[in-house]
Amino acid sequence: MNFPEIARRPARHTRPAVVVALLTAAGALLTGGCDSGSAASDDEKTGRLPTRAQVSDALLRATDLTGYARVKPDPKATPPDRSDSPRCLRTLNDLDAGTPARGTAVQARIQFSQSQSGPWLRETLRVYRSDDDAKGAYRKAVSALSDCARFTVTWSKDGNTGTESVRETAAPRLGDRSWAAAIRFEGMAFRTGETKTLIQSGRQLIVISHAATPDAPAYERTQEIARRATERASRNPKA
């Protein structure tokens, strides 16, 4: 996790998935098949990537939410860098704090918070050159996270450690396919819970991370936010 509220805790750490060391849990993988029915844009047909500003325009806004204010990430917060399950750590760190390789996709992120104890909300939107590229990225992430039952994470700079668990859970039927997981983090004298939702819609990959301490926000609320994010992204002709 990589949320500023948690990052401000004593050691300014951030977690791979959604908050400093927030999540890890998930329950039953459901892939949805909702066809948007919209015709492909010229950019999609040619594989031309949008600008970062165009992708940013497709992100959620505070006006799309109730009770949330936009917050900026803490530049001093860092994700854990060691684990007994490196693949799980790399995947969560990438979804929460990574950037796709230059020329493969264009990405934008936005974060919101209700209070210092949460809930925290992060949306990451990546737009690839083609539907197949987005599908490949989605499947790679889901494949990795599906094997992350329980693992340790460590910040090598100061030796702080924690435990994360991931359990697949029912996903909202959004986009071309979707997946969700409950993620729990325990360590450094606190506990956080998160629901992470991945949606592939055309050439877009949408990642919604919704977390709080000590437990994740209500799942129904997270589903509604994921639905709004998907609808907003799909309405943007440039992204």
Summarize this entry quickly.
This protein is an alpha+beta fold. The protein is built from six helices and nine strands.
Structure, explained:
The longest helix has 17 residues, at 219-235. 24% of the residues lie in helices and 30% in strands. Strands 1-3-4-9-8-7-6-5-2 form a 9-stranded antiparallel beta sheet, with helices on both faces. It has helices spanning 4-7, 42-46, 52-56, 86-97, 131-145, 219-235; strands spanning 69-71, 82-83, 105-113, 120-128, 150-155, 160-169, 177-187, 190-201, 204-212. It is globular.
Strand percent estimate: 25-35%
Q: Uncertain runs with pLDDT below 50, 5 residues or more?
A: 7-12, 16-39
**Could you give the distance between the termini?**
26 Å
Number of strands: 9
Estimate the helix proportion, in percent: 10-25%
Strands side by side in the biggest sheet: 1-3-4-9-8-7-6-5-2
Mean pLDDT: 86
Q: Radius of gyration, Cα only, in angstroms?
A: 17 Å
SS field, number of helical segments: 6
Helix and strand composition category: alpha+beta
**Overall body shape:** globular
Could you give a short account of the major beta sheet? 9 strands, antiparallel
